[in-house]
Structure formats: C-alpha cells, structure tokens
Amino acid sequence: MKKTIQVSRFRNGQLRERVPLVVGLRHGVVQTWHRNGVAASEEPYVKGRLHGVCRQWDEAGKLLGEFTMVEGTGVQREWHDNGRIKLEVSTVAGKFCGPNRIWLRDGTLLSERYLLRGRPVTRTQYTRAAAKDLTLPKPEDSAATPRRPSRAIERHVHKVFVGGLLEKSSPAEARTWLSGAAKTKSGPSLGRFRSAKAALVLVTALYDAGALEVTVPGIYRDKRGKEFADWLLVRLPSARAIRGRIRKACRILKKRDLGAFLPESDVGETHLVLALE
To answer: Over the chain, what is the mean pLDDT?
Structure first.
C-alpha cells in the first residue's frame, strides 16, 4: 500500500495541516494548527472515512468541542473561536445525508440544507424519509437550537457574515474591500467585485455547493499602509462529487473574468485556491 503525507503551511512556514494518505484515501489522524503553532484540530480517518473522536481547539489551546464518528457516520461539527457552534454536517457511511447547518458567530443560523443520500431535498421531504427509515439522522439532531434569520435581521446577517469572511475588525472595512474601493496602485484589492453583494453571492454559492470553509488567509499592506488581499482559500470536503460542484461554482470567476482557481483538475486535494485578479 502506498503511504504518503500531504502537508500545507502558512506563508510564514508554520505547519498548517498534515494529512496521512493510503492509496489516495485519508488514513490516520489528520491534524491542523493555528498560525501560532497551537493545535487546531484532530480528526481520525480509516480508509477515507472519519472514525473516532474528533476535537477542535482555539488559539490558546482551549478545547472548543468534540464529536464522535463511526465509519463515516455521525454529525461533524466545527466551532467559532468564541465557543459557539459554526458548522454541522451529517453523513452516513461517508456520504452527505441529513441536515447541514452554518451559524454566524452570534448564533444566528445562516444556512440550513437537507440532503438525502447526497441528493438535495426539502426539510419536509427529509422529515418524511427519516420517519420511515430510522437509520437516517434525525432532522432535529443539533448541538444548537437554530435561530432563523427574519427579514428584520437580514442586514445584520449580511454585515456579520461579510466581516467574518475577511476576518476584518469591522464590517465597514470588509465591504470596502469587497467593493474594490480599497484598490491601490501598489497592489490589488479583493478582486474586481462591483459590490459586497456580488462577492457575497460567490461565497454563498461556494457554501451551497458544499465548501466547508471560505477564508482570506493572507492580508497584506502596501507602502502607504493600506491593506489588501488577492486570494481566497476554500476548504474542500473529501467527497469527489461535492468537490466537483464547488469547482463548478468557481467557474463563475472565469466567465466574469474575475480571476482563476487552482488546481483545475481534481487530485484529491483538501483546499482550493481562488486567485482574484
């Protein structure tokens, strides 16, 4: 059996992720680290499926949470650094099946989708199927009670989400970046999006396609002290079909001449780079 170790690093050389592979499948403990070198997460895999106790820590080393998977079956979770639940993904034998939810840092539910053996369905359709098949994850299985955004807080959701996307100190700065207003002669802004809404549409499409996380890993300063970024990092799930859907969403960039994505071919990678030109 061919064994390999896939490694990725931050720009400062600090180890970011270590993925053990056997014949191209994850096999062993997948580890990630924060920029300061503190362990961020540990996820045990057996022949490409999560199996065992998975844990996540904050930058100070405090345990944010843990969950248990059995041969790819269970509810995978991620947490914000403030301890609130961030993401829940239900799988059965390694395939997406059940409720999938994303929350903002303040606990507001941003997205809720239901999948039945990899196929998108409505909540009603899934609830009916789960009532007949008791092996399916229950619709209400969740570590948090969903706080559904109403029309009154839609603008609040937009501001918090855009600000969190760029990990900026304020939503106003984030929207300035996304609109291209921060562009300088010495460096590009975050792509050529005409508005914050246009960028948000792209990021939402990536999450809807199945992306686990979309972040801005590098923020730079020009000689005048202005900040800019020129690429996004998309964390991919292990399912090949889902990775294909994410690539399809990325092709919006090429069609609109906004940038490119790498790598173009699916080689089982864990991350996809969006170069926003």
So the answer is: 75
